[in-house]
Design brief:
Shape: globular
Number of strands: 35
Helix content: 10-25%
Structural class: alpha/beta
Number of helices: 11
Distance between the termini: 40 Å
Length: 693
């Protein structure tokens, strides 16, 4: 197809006709054209927010338990319903009881002698699609336990390969003595002698000589963590998965969702107050995504809340991102409930949701000496505030039911915390009536930012490459844009193929050059387990031992690590034509670009994307440079390239990456008028040029 498009400018969307344009695609052979990108360095433009590029976390695709969260055991507190032994195999004499030491997690297992020396009682946990163990790595096993009759008993702890052809299934053997009538936490560190992706944990009730136990033992909150978690936290994150987030260098971290904030019912919504405090006493919650996709159904998809709001704030701090929590507005999921299942749109009916917002800000920022929620934060190990600046109220909701509730909650929050920027939503789509009604409502309610969502195919992105140039719809004053959930896919190809990611890179030039309007953008979803996914595409994939950073991941990383401080005016001309911010028709492929300056590092950064199927001759001209800058400018320019020409290429866990950035250099020629370089921009390639001043 002869598909050409560029960037930077002309308004195509009016307030009255903000709708998906008609696709204009011309068939033929792409002809390489001379593309001249002119960057004016004389007058740096809008400042680029630290938050412009970020990440969005939602517990979909086993993103928390079984993913980012380091816990390796499923249903560790026997609270899954209706089967309290889900994830466990019980043998011998095992009874589930419900008068345990933790009021929010009352269930525990009583292991009692099977009544014969050759009969055994115990439990075996399957983990999340197995338990991934690495050779010579250490794992912290812990359990809350007691012996109700006071007679000491032992747990014989094994890592096992259930399906091995070896003589022994077990490949570790560890003993733990339980000798108290009172509930106590017992811990032992176990080293794995092998690497295995799908191990299981087996526990026998026994005596000190590993003979079948003759008494009874109660066990609760049975847990297994790698000792080597991210930043070494005992209740920590899986190191390689969290490291992938840090390596992005995101500016903002939105959590915990997403539709789980709403819940299928209000009772099943994510409630942040249940996710803080001692981890043993955080109640589980049925995941919003357990029931949604019957064609990819996981009856054991629950949230342990081990990864809770304290851990989210802590992780945001450690990866250098601004925390952006999302709280419920008093509505369950509208897709699933319509006008039903919502709290009354009155102050009394919404008081709990108002309190949740105010109390969360106090939890994050308050003084432990004067505020109970801030004291809880300090007791959990973080006396200093988390410096929360943003709060989103509601997710992907629309029309009067949402507007009415936000109109009650937002002013109450502002009375107590006027320093917090509040984020509203324009609904689940980016061009429909809900969207067009949502923006005026958010302006009227004085939202600081408006959350837009668009999971769309390649054709949509081809037509909306200048979305944020429309300054009739997106007015100068009023809320700024938060592109909170977005991703590109091709029709019939909803996986992380490189062919779609190149359009994500091109679209991001539109966001970057409109940095005065778009203050945040977060790709979604973030994570997916190869054995537990329900939604594609996703930024990072993993199995129990490996991660895969997708082509989309590297697109995001190249923007996040080359953010700059200010936008630079940039125009493009094709084949000697007039320089323009939008030289080709919408709905076509072409060369896209945006430019920024980093005033701290004294660098100009030019991002160029070729979405066509052929290499394109390229000239980059830098104008407006001072004499001092021209005298100091170097001749060698660093170039980072992401080749997406293999359309179906996909990085997968445990395999060599087929799509990843490559570094090279280009030569810059300077004279009294400015500086320029010429290059050949390969087909379907994203390149970043860094010029040191």
């Amino acid at each position: 197809m002869k598909l050409r498009h560029l960037l930077l400018g002309a308004a195509v969307l009016g307030t009255a006709n903000f709708q998906l344009p008609t696709l204009d695609v011309r068939l033929g052979v792409v002809q390489a054209a001379s593309n001249v990108i002119t960057v004016n360095a004389k007058k740096p433009g809008a400042p680029i927010q630290k938050t412009q590029w970020g990440i969005f976390f939602e517990d979909i695709n086993f993103a928390a338990d079984g993913g980012l969260y380091g816990e390796l055991l499923k249903n560790r507190s026997f609270e899954f319903t209706p089967d309290h032994l889900m994830g466990w195999q019980a043998f011998g004499k095992v009874e589930i009881k419900n008068d345990g030491p933790f009021d929010k997690n009352p269930h525990y297992a009583r292991l009692t002698s099977a009544g014969h020396r050759d009969l055994w009682t115990g439990l075996q946990n399957e983990g999340f699609f197995g338990i991934g163990l690495e050779k010579d790595a250490e794992y912290r096993f812990s359990v809350w336990a007691r012996v109700p009759d006071g007679q000491p008993q032992w747990l014989w702890i094994q890592f096992v390969d259930q399906n091995t052809m070896d003589e022994h299934q077990e490949f570790t053997n560890t003993d733990l003595k339980v000798d108290s009538r009172e509930w106590k936490k017992y811990t032992v560190v176990i080293k794995s002698p092998r690497t295995i992706e799908r191990a299981q944990l087996r526990l026998f009730l026994c005596d000190e000589k590993r003979r079948s136990g003759s008494g009874a033992m109660d066990v609760e909150h049975i847990s297994l963590f790698p000792v080597d978690t991210y930043k070494g936290h005992e209740n920590g994150m899986r190191r390689d998965v969290a490291q992938a987030l840090e390596d992005l260098r995101p500016g903002v971290f939105r959590f915990p969702g997403g539709c789980i904030v709403e819940g299928t019912t209000l009772e099943l919504r994510y409630q942040w107050k249940n996710s803080v405090g001692p981890v043993e006493n955080r109640p589980i919650n049925k995941n919003r995504w357990e029931n949604t996709f019957t064609y990819r159904y996981y009856a054991d998809y629950f949230q342990s809340y081990g990864l809770g709001f304290f851990e989210y704030f802590q992780l945001a701090e450690e990866i250098g991102a601004e925390p952006l929590p999302v709280l419920n507005v008093g509505m369950a999921c509208q897709f699933q409930n319509g006008e039903d299942a919502h709290a009354p749109a009155t102050k009394a009916g919404l008081q709990q949701f108002i309190d949740d917002c105010i109390d969360l800000i106090d939890f994050a920022n308050g003084d432990p000496a004067t505020n109970e929620w801030a004291k809880l934060r300090a007791d959990m190990g973080h006396p200093a505030p988390f410096n929360l600046k943003f709060l989103a109220i509601g997710n992907e909701q629309w029309e009067k039911p949402y507007f009415d509730r936000l109109a009650i909650i937002a002013p109450e929050v502002r009375k107590v915390h006027p320093e917090i920027k509040l984020i509203g939503t324009s609904g689940p789509n980016a061009e429909d009536d809900h969207f067009k009604n949502g923006w005026p409502a958010m302006r009227e309610l004085k939202a600081d930012l408006v959350d837009e969502h668009y999971y769309r195919d390649v054709k949509w992105y081809q037509n909306w490459m200048n979305r944020y140039d429309d300054r009739e719809f997106y007015t100068k004053d009023g809320p700024r844009v938060f592109a909170g959930e977005w991703a590109c896919h091709d029709r019939g190809k909803k996986w992380n193929h490189a062919g779609a990611s190149i359009y994500e890179a091109a679209f991001m030039t539109n966001i970057e050059r409109n940095a005065d309007l778009v203050h945040m953008a977060t790709y979604a979803p973030l994570f997916a387990h190869v054995d537990g996914w329900q939604w594609r595409p996703d930024l990072i994939w993993y199995d129990n031992l490996h991660t895969a950073r997708t082509a989309s991941y590297y697109v995001q990383q190249l923007y996040m690590t080359n953010r700059g401080t200010n936008v630079l005016p940039t125009t493009v001309s094709i084949d000697g034509g007039q320089a323009s911010v939008n030289p080709v028709p919408k709905g076509e492929d072409g060369v896209f670009a945006s430019s920024v300056i980093d005033t701290q590092k004294q660098e100009i950064i030019v991002k160029v994307i070729n979405t066509t199927g052929e290499a394109q001759p390229l000239t980059i001209q830098l104008t407006g440079l001072s004499k001092k800058q021209l005298a100091a400018i170097g001749t060698s320019v660093s170039v980072t390239s992401l080749d997406c020409s293999d359309y179906d290429a996909e990085n997968q866990p445990g395999r060599p990456e087929v799509v990843s950035p490559k570094n090279s250099t280009a030569t810059l020629v300077a004279d009294k008028k400015g500086a320029s370089l010429t290059a050949q921009l390969p087909a379907k390639t994203f390149q970043v040029y860094r010029v040191k001043l």
